[in-house]
Write a structure and sequence with these properties.
This protein is mostly helical. Helix content is 69%, strand content 2%. A hairpin with a 2-residue loop joins β1 and β2. 48% of the residues are buried. The model has no long low-confidence stretch (mean pLDDT 88).
Length: 347
């Protein structure tokens, strides 16, 4: 094999992180704004269609990114993309053909890509002139078939995680808020969909608001921790898009999660103290698309200036201050991490 297991894993995680940003950020940036403008400009609905299509194409985009990082050939990369679509689970056979919805199960996409990647490395150039005939077929049938087989078990694992998180709502309110903040901060930087978990178990009210504040705390902190090593655009994408872009760095260096957990617990607790609410469909987004802040405003029933100021403090000022403070403590004082630990390269 030309690449070892660690290289394959890292290329898969980094490719997934990049694919998630590319496919989901357009919707995160535009969807809420477009929905507000639709009554005046109905023709803008085409943009919502385009961002939905981008999200549906997440498995293809992710596989393409993995292929580029692994320096795979066009045939190998395309074969990987076909297998990833089979494992994603967002395409379903209906009466009139295929129906597509959502971006798919990221964990199963990753598993399918890894199987396909390993198969490509094992086969190499053994087929020579017959590569274009045999490689796409074998990768599709074997890796895609594995993805189809593992989809339901992986979903069951995700559901179990969701049920465990749902039990947190039965605890003392401030403790519930802190634990919800931590749980969703960890979910947002993992291959598991934070939105999917929130929707599956119906998290609502203060639990939803605390979950969004935990994600927001993680988003701003990660942007601050790595801003010296990343471009301005990459740093902004952590909270305007998704902090899931740091997935590879955090999964390979779990110690980096500690300051994130501290920040998320504090902001989640604040969510309980100030009764920040939300719904099952708004939880899991954090600051992205302003979904968390807008849901918090709606939960209070009116958008008074006092409520707007409070949301601004909780979803913007406080997470930034916490990020700066924790960066000073963990980076400058304790030398627990460096900005380079959070470096991302999209060149």
């Amino acid at each position: 094999m030309q690449q070892n297991g660690k290289q394959i894993l890292m290329n898969t995680l980094n490719g997934l992180s990049t694919g998630i940003i590319v496919a989901l950020v357009p919707g995160a940036l535009l969807n809420n704004l477009i929905k507000v403008l639709l009554p005046t400009w109905p023709s803008l609905n085409v943009i919502l269609t385009m961002t939905s299509l981008a999200a549906i194409m997440l498995p293809v985009v992710s596989a393409a990114c993995v292929g580029m990082l692994g320096k795979l050939s066009p045939i190998q990369t395309s074969s990987l993309a076909l297998a990833a679509v089979c494992g994603a689970g967002n395409f379903h056979i209906g009466k009139n053909g295929f129906n597509a919805a959502g971006s798919g199960d990221v964990i199963n996409i990753a598993l399918t890509i890894i199987v396909g990647y390993l198969l490509i490395e094992m086969l190499g150039a053994k087929f020579k002139a017959y590569t274009v005939l045999l490689l796409p077929t074998l990768v599709l049938i074997i890796a895609g078939g594995v993805g189809l087989l593992t989809f339901k078990p992986v979903q069951q694992i995700t559901t179990l995680i969701g049920l465990i998180i749902a039990q947190l709502t039965n605890l003392q309110p401030i403790l519930t808020g802190a634990l919800m903040g931590i749980a969703f901060a960890l979910l947002i930087v993992s291959p598991i969909s934070s939105v999917g978990i929130a929707t599956a178990v119906g998290i609502h009210g203060v639990a939803s608001g605390s979950a969004n504040l935990g994600i927001t705390a993680a988003s701003f902190a990660l942007a601050i921790y790595g801003w010296k090593a990343n471009s301005w655009g990459t740093s902004l994408a952590h909270f305007l898009g998704s902090p899931k872009m740091q997935m590879a760095n955090l999964m390979t260096q779990p110690k980096l999660l500690l300051p994130i957990i501290v920040n998320a617990a504090l902001m989640g607790g604040c969510g309980a103290i100030f009764q920040v609410g939300g719904t099952a469909t708004s939880a899991g987004f954090g600051f992205s698309g302003l979904i968390g802040p807008l849901a918090a405003l709606n939960s209070w029933g009116q958008s008074s200036w006092g409520n707007i100021v409070l949301v601004t403090i909780l979803f913007f000022i406080a997470p930034i201050l916490l990020g700066l403070l924790s960066n000073y403590v963990f980076n400058n004082k304790l030398n627990y991490f460096s900005a380079q630990d959070f470096a991302l390269n999209y060149e």
